[in-house]
Amino acid sequence: MGHDVVIRGGNVVDGTGREPFHADIAIDDDQITAIGKVSGKGTEEINADGLQVSPGFIDLHTHMDAQISWDPLVTSISWHGVTTALLGNCGVTFAPCKSSDREYLAAMMETVEDIPREAIMSGLPWTWEFYGDYLNAVENLGPSINVAGLVGHCATRYYVMGERSVEELATEDEIRQIANLAERSVKEGAFGFSTNRLPEHVLPDGRSIPGTFAAPKELEAVAKAIGPHGGLMQTVFGPKGFEVDMEIIANGARHARAALFSTAVEIGNDRTNKKVMKMLGEGSDVISITTVRGGGSVSSLINNVMPNTQEPNTSPAWMELKKLNFADRLLRIRDSAFRAKLIEEVKVLDKEPDGYHFSGKNSFKHVFYMGNGDRPIYTETQSLRDIANNSGEHPVEVWLRIIDETDGKALFHNRAFNRDLEALEELITYDWVSPGLGDGGAHVGIMIDSGWSTFVLSHWHRDRGTYSLQEAIRKITAMPARALNLKDRGTLTIGKRADINVFDLARLEERMPEIVHDFPFGAPRFIQRAAGYKATLVNGKIVLKDDELTGIRAGNVLRSYD
User: Fold this and answer.
1) Is residue 314 pLDDT above 80, yes or no?
2) Are 201 and 194 spatial neighbours (Cβ–Cβ below 8 Å)?
3) What's 89-138+150-262's CATH class?
4) Percent of the chain at pLDDT above 90?
5) 3 state SS of 351
6) Cross-referenced Pfam families, in alphabetical order (predicted)?
């Protein structure tokens, strides 16, 4: 008996956490039909001898909500073995939405997630009002991988309260309407509800986005409304509101099916672990995600993240540099007089406090050169400030010198959170933490963490040995599948959907990020490719072969009620 596809002779790491085993896998239509010794031939055969075979990876934190409309191949995450992506995180979504509010939601997404407003307005079909129709519109786009969605607090609250949603508390009646609308969205296919407590996420006018300061009882009402329909509560919180926000997460876990939240070592491993262990002890289902390396922006001459970006009024030379194209920027930094101006303008800020961007000498202690090889360096321990202290230079001189020496190609990683890699190694081994938080589709001109899954396997398993192979795979397949209550994905089991990766562990690595201009209106974005992926299958179809996407768009829009 023949099969559509046979993956022959691989080392199967099935996602359950058990020891890998040698086997063939047969696929017919979109399902796994045999695991073991498969005698029948496949219409397509994949030779997996010496390779690893795993379930497809599940990305629990993306913002592909807009990009998927003009990039149905869903790059860069589809280069890194991701076969299912969760949209709608951080409270910002495009549904529900009245026709009069489209521009408002697009502007909000632009300021929160750095996705150009004009690209959103022109790229999305905007054929929906409620969440179910939004999912229908995404389905019509024909994505290459599976997508699932959360409904956002911002859109839901604005739909009910309008302008009052930004700064005012909801009335009892408005809370009821918000909860009912969230319930409707989950019944129409949303996997849950996302909310954002981080004040730094703002509207174009500088005010925090709707829902940031919502009363806990509002979120409890939502959790109670979506829980009976299997909805989960996703929360982003700021460290200033730890006690309140952890109680919001706990309430979400008590009343909804599960709680999903983002964390970082700066919040405090021990205190977060104690809170979560208490929730788990009460029988709640709680899962957290965190970046798998220091999270932050990439600075370089090829994008607009350069030294002194926080002080435009006192940094005329740097602001002049930002306005130029790449070739002219390189010429200007090679002009000795102009270069001296750049250095002096940063030196005057040496007493400024540390921040997310360059603002004087102190902030360079979290900036690291990513190297000049094919594989970027994310674990460097010597910062630019350390290099400067050893060489007698100012850190900005080091930045400019390396830029010059590499003909402008150098990239620098600005670690804003999860800076302590030893503490991060502890955090990602907690049972309730799933590595991820790549933020794919967001901040694309300044950040690129879409290769998180490749980094988990290449660094935390192969290079560092923090995870066994089976545990690394379980953490990025079965664990996130459980978070979404996906019964038919996440492990390699007969009868489940054939979302599968075949990869060469010895070769697996991320490639150096690069800037492309393929967004609508030519807006730039970072992309990051991978090496070592023999094949990725989505619903039984080969969407990637030998590190290159095939162009096949086999993804489904997953709905919570399926």
Assistant:
1) no
2) no
3) alpha beta
4) 86
5) coil
6) Amidohydro_3
Give, in words, the CATH class of 3-55+512-549: mainly beta
What is the structure's pLDDT at 440?
95
User: In whole angstroms, what is the distance from residue 208 CA to residue 361 CA?
Assistant: 30
Q: Are the C-beta atoms of residues 225 and 182 closer than 8 Å to each other?
A: yes
* The two structure tokens encoding residue 174: 């408005």
Q: How far apart are CA 502 and CA 13, in angstroms?
A: 10
Please state the domain extents for the chain: 3-55+512-549, 89-138+150-262, 296-417
Q: pLDDT (tens digit, 9 = 90+) per residue, 398-419?
A: 999 999 999 999 999 999 899 9
Distance separating alpha carbons of residues 231 and 466, to the nearest angstrom: 32
Close Cβ partners of 122 (under 8 Å, ≥ 6 residues apart): 520, 521
pLDDT digits 0-9 by tens, 42-71 = 999 999 999 999 999 999 999 999 999 999
The single residue listed with the structure tokens 């990766």 is 501
Number of neighbours of residue 41 by Cβ within 10 angstroms: 13
CA 482 to chain centre: 18
CB 79 within 8 A of CB 529: yes
What is the structure's pLDDT at 351? 59
